[in-house]
Amino acid sequence: MMxxxxxxxxxxxxxxxxxxxxxxxxLTASWSDSGYKNRPxxxxxxxxxxxxxxxxxxxxxxxxAQLRRIGVLAVAGYTQLPCSDKxxxxxxxxxxxxxxxxxxxxxRVLGVDKRSxxxxxxxxxxxxxxxxxxxxxxSRTFDDVYSPSYFASYEVHKLASDLYDxxxxxxxxxxxxxxxxxxxxxxxxxxxxxxxxxxxxKKDLL
Length: 206
Prior knowledge:
By secondary structure, the protein is α/β, with parallel strands linked by helices. The protein has a domain at 26-116 and 153-202: 2-Layer Sandwich (Double Stranded RNA Binding Domain), CATH 3.30.160. 22% of the residues lie in helices and 35% in strands. The strands form two sheets. Strands 1-8-7-4-2-3 form a six-stranded mixed sheet, with helices on both faces. β7 (150-165) and β8 form a beta hairpin. α1 (53-69) crosses α3 (185-202). The radius of gyration is 24 Å and the shape is elongated.
């Protein structure tokens, strides 16, 4: 039925943009089954697969709350599969039967990359703030402004979120995203969930 191979842990935060100074979310890929007939989806079981139960609960609760705001019934996975970082097929099928949901969304980690960035020195000009006169000093009336180069290393967490039809186990929608060095757990998870829901709505699945 449903593809429920052992899944690694979900990132304990959401995704950020490719800019080191930003914490906005970014999708790197998105796909949906254009021929799927049972839309819009009325109810979803949210599963964030993680060994960190605090992060898992925060992710699932955030997803449930945001879906309910747009009129979609949602159930947090931990209420049906408590303390399970590797839910098996039987457990998920049992949760589907109890909750009666029409779809299951599973988020997991694809991997973590270590990357680095080197920003070179830049040079620009700004008007001089001191009076140099006009004759003989004309070429010096703009001061050089330098921005020093810097080197930064960071981690990129790659996430996959898959939505399955609960009756057939067919994959309906799939998205991949990245998170760069998340710091604020609540903020990052909120950003991730908003991004995923926006894409689901664009695909006319919600």
